[in-house]
């Protein structure tokens, strides 16, 4: 037993050290910086909780944190709701599944930054959307609410993360035993009842995975809010970027980063627990 344990530890040691170097070390550095304070030209390494007090009492931080979570939640719900029918069609109805999956990954052939700029051109004051509506005579003047607000951020992020929602849901639907659907039909269940009683409960793990894959990185996105969000679409990551950049206040930036991580982790754990409980009730 000791020999087997030694072999296991030896084999896992490189991966453990690698993960520790890339994950644990940066987190430890963030924690250390969050306990320091920034002076005019240097960092005071005297341990203090001043940065946490400033972050908790600053109304701007609270506002941006709440806005970030709400935007990420909206993007997650909208993306998963639109991705589920597509994944369902590909898994159970489509004949050429490989072709459909290839089409889903086409957006990844271009840079994420280019896709954001494309939406900026589409939603702009003189962009494709306004030009088309003006040409059709549906509006008299360009719409101003399409860009530089939360709507633009949600739309752009939903498009960018759509494949990450489709693929895990597709995998969960693909694993469903079709004999269960046939048995539900034999028992007198219609399409809606069959979906609610069989398909949906069995695909909840895929839905949870899709939600987490979208929600967690969306909260920390700062490129999209910077380009299409304007002043009404800024998120907590934009404030963190300012602290590490123009403000040159790394301790406060590290504090905000840790608070954002803890907030996302709390919401994610709460979501997983509630989703699991809901799945058990449905079953």
TrEMBL record:
Q: One of this protein's Pfam families, by short name?
A: BPD_transp_1
Source organism, top-level taxon:
Bacteria
Write out the annotated subcellular location: Cell membrane
Keyword DNA repair: yes or no?
no
Q: Where is the ABC transmembrane type-1 domain?
A: 65-271
Tell me which InterPro entries the record gives: MetI-like, MetI-like_sf
Topology in the lipid bilayer is annotated as: Multi-pass membrane protein
Q: Where are the transmembrane segments?
A: 15-36, 69-92, 98-114, 151-173, 194-216, 252-273
Keyword terms, alphabetized: Cell membrane, Membrane, Transmembrane, Transmembrane helix, Transport
- Per the similarity annotation, which family is this? Belongs to the binding-protein-dependent transport system permease family. CysTW subfamily.
Protein name as it appears in the record: ABC transporter permease
Q: Which organism is it from?
A: Ruegeria haliotis
């Amino acid at each position: 037993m000791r020999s087997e344990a030694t072999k296991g530890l030896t084999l896992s040691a490189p991966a453990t050290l690698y993960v520790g170097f890339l994950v644990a070390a940066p987190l430890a550095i963030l924690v250390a910086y969050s306990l320091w304070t920034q002076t005019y030209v240097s960092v005071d390494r005297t341990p203090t909780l001043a940065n946490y007090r400033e972050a908790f009492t600053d109304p701007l931080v609270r506002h941006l944190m709440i806005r970030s979570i709400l935007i990420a939640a909206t993007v997650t719900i909208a993306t998963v709701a639109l991705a589920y029918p597509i994944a369902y069609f590909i898994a159970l109805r489509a004949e050429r599944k490989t072709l459909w999956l290839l089409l889903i990954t086409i957006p990844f052939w271009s840079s994420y930054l280019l896709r954001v700029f494309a939406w900026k051109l589409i939603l702009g004051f003189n962009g494709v959307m306004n030009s088309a509506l003006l040409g059709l005579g549906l509006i008299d003047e360009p719409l101003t609410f399409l860009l530089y607000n939360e709507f633009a951020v949600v739309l752009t992020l939903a498009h960018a993360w759509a494949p990450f929602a489709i693929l895990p849901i597709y995998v969960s639907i693909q694993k469903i035993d079709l004999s269960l659907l046939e048995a539900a039909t034999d028992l007198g269940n219609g399409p809606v009842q069959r979906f609610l009683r069989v398909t949906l409960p069995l695909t909840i793990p895929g839905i949870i995975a899709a939600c987490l894959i979208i929600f967690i990185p969306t909260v920390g996105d700062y490129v999209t809010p910077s380009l299409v969000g304007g002043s009404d679409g800024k998120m907590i990551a934009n404030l963190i970027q300012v602290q590490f950049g123009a403000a040159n206040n790394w301790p406060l930036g590290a504090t905000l980063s840790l608070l954002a991580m803890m907030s996302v982790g709390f919401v994610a754990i709460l979501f997983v627990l509630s989703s699991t409980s809901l799945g058990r009730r449905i079953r």
